[in-house]
Description:
CATH class: Alpha Beta
Number of helices: 2
CATH topology: Translation Initiation Factor IF3
Number of domains: 1
Strand content: 35-45%
Radius of gyration: 13 Å
Helix content: 25-40%
Number of strands: 4
CATH superfamily: Alba-like domain
Strand order of the largest sheet: 1-2-4-3
Order of helices and strands: EHEHEE
Low-confidence stretches: none
Distance between the termini: 17 Å
Largest sheet: 4 strands, mixed
Structural class: alpha+beta
Shape: globular
Amino acid sequence: MEILKVSAGSNPKSVAGALAAVIRETSCAEIQAVGAGAVNQSIKAIAIARGYVAPNGINLICVPAFSEIEIDGEERTAIRFIVQPR
């Protein structure tokens, strides 16, 4: 499964384009976000990506989950969005 890492400074349209491309290729993707700003950009990207793939008859759903990751030797809690077609 392809993991797209999103930060607070990520452009939602760019992330949405990457997400739509991954969904078309593999039909499943994962977005990883750490922090409120990154989660905000991720949700925007998922909403935009739904519009990108809808003309192809694809309806996206996302399942949020918590995940423990290591950044610079430090444990952090990330939110992962598993995105797949319904």
